[in-house]
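Support reply, case 0932

Customer input (verbatim):
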Amino acid sequence: MLKHRELIRRVGWSLLIVAIYQLGQKITLPMIDPAVAKASLEGRTLLQNFGILTGSQFTLPTLFSLGIGPFMTGMIIWQAISSLGLDAISHLSQRQVSYIQKWIALGLAALQAIQIVYFIKNALITLPIFGNSKMATMAVVYLMLLSGTMLSIFLGDLLSQHGLGGSSLLILPGVILGLPNMITSGWGPFNYSLSHSHLVTIGLVTVVVLYILEFLMHTEQRLKVQRPMMQGDLTESYLPLRILSAGAMPFMFSMSLFRLPRMIFSTPKAANTPMGEFFLNITDYHSWAGVLTYAIVLMFLGYAFGLITVQPGQLAKSMKESGEYFLNIFPGEQTTSFLFKKYFVVTSFGNIFLVMIGVAPMILSMIFHDRGIANYSAYFGSLAILVSIMDNVAGQFKALYQKNDYHLF
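Our regenerated output:
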């Protein structure tokens, strides 16, 4: 028991913080008619699905409705900025970086909160204390949404310091609980019923896809690195390049990016224009144009998030500074070029599998003339996020469990 004291402590902290976060997502905001608010948000399928995948909750306005979604998005934006390799960024302290990330998250939360308040404006209840003013009520609800976001970020920081899995663990319960919704109404208007035969199909497909995703998440190419500053066997090591370097992030944002033009051109006036017809056609998930567009979106996000994660340019710079090199390749520009080429080759294989998993249900839905089958695309995205989070948690758990098993003598 004492041997694994730190592991038990971290598991305890993780369970406590996740429980508090889940409780916060159940506390409905005051000055809101829950029934009217739920009805107002019910048709926003894309918004609700995005919330499930990013740790937010948009079925009903609650204290943690925005959750850590803005923070996670902000971290990705900051990683993209950091990948530019600017000297001003590289000289920032960890404390300064943390503050900047939180300010970015607050800005994103402010934009999302405006959207939520606008959607539920008919559900707001005015009070005499605010002079029965609708604007005052909207402002109070808006501030409560922002406060909930910052409290969520605080819980995420606590989880990173004292728990397992980091902030991403807060998403896990929402992803698991949202799986039925993803398979039944992932794309929105057409449902996939949970009949007995469908449940059997879902079970079999889930096992196969989980196995494929788990295999892809751990597949990597190892590039031999020479380390002349090290002695013994460590003079030769390797640099791993994962085939899915972007992890599950392409699935996390692909649906939102794919459906964004449809939201913009959804009004009758815009839909009847040549541009509106074009964008509505290429974002119809039940058409070949839509399948191609979604494949391009997934492929693009796979490369983009992969570059942010791997950062070949920064990696080459770091190797040069530490005296490491690849055989027959000069440090500097040649190493940078070599890493970029290897990255695109390895990542291309991963992205092809990613696209196949993402678009196969859309193609099958057209072949069998059943739009509900396309919901498997959203479902597979949730499974990818689930695998990514669980791998991270399992890795930390295993490291802590075996921490005291190493003995020098």
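We compared this against your earlier run and they match. Two observations from our side: The beta strands are 220-226, 236-242. The first strand starts at residue 220 and ends at 226. Please reopen the case if you see a mismatch on your end.
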